[in-house]
Task: inverse folding
């Protein structure tokens, strides 16, 4: 788990550097699309960026920034496989990994993908660029990285519960139904004790000898 966390941290550092060069990335895509005579369709997949880099990019700066994007995607894909090997997970973590694998598929259509607040990658584009060209491709990395962070957080919480079942997080996640039998048992015991006390009182009343009467004395004054 520590190795996964450290690898994700390194990828996040690379992404921060890439994020600072988003304008350069967009201009590199723009020039490559012009060179490929491919100005109509949006940039909608990782393999499309790879194709631009390999066949339609003749500027070293453009090639470097396009390669940075493809490289980060490749590292995230490898990290997905490592996460599966490290922790089998539950439905939550499996769902997060499946989401990342689908998004990182080379030919997955990214056209409708949009990163929302707190990410500003889409806001940095013009309206035309965001809607019809690059909104999906710039949203890919922040969404995948967020999902992987969530995977790490959830997996750590589960591992903590395995090591220390009495932890506060585990108690919060314990279903209420697990505590109900104990409450019902306690209520049942109290009812049993109350019934036993009533039966005992009835027994004493039924078997108590009649009270002794005072001896008869003739009327008048009698010394004590």
Result:
């Amino acid at each position: 788990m520590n190795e996964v966390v450290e690898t994700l941290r390194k990828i996040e550092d690379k992404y921060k550097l890439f994020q600072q060069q988003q304008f350069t990335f967009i201009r590199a895509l723009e020039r490559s699309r012009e060179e490929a005579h491919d100005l109509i369709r949006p940039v909608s997949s990782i393999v499309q960026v790879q194709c631009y880099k390999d066949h339609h990019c003749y500027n070293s700066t453009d090639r470097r920034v396009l390669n940075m994007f493809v490289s980060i995607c490749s590292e995230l894909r490898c990290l997905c496989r490592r996460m599966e090997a490290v922790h089998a997970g539950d439905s939550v973590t499996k769902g997060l990994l499946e989401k990342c694998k689908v998004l990182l598929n080379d030919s997955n259509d990214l056209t409708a993908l949009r990163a929302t607040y707190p990410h500003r990658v889409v806001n940095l584009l013009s309206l035309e660029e965001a809607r019809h060209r690059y909104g999906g491709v710039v949203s890919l990395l922040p969404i995948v990285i967020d999902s992987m962070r969530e995977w790490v957080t959830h997996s750590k919480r589960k591992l903590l519960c395995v090591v220390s079942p009495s932890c506060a997080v585990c108690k919060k996640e314990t279903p209420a139904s697990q505590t109900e039998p104990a409450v019902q048992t306690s209520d049942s015991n109290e009812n049993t004790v109350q019934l036993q006390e009533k039966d005992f009182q009835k027994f004493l009343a039924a078997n108590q000898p009649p009270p002794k009467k005072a001896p008869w004395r003739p009327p008048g004054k009698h010394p004590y």
Notes: Residues 174-186 have pLDDT under 50 and may be disordered. The first helix runs from residue 2 to 19.
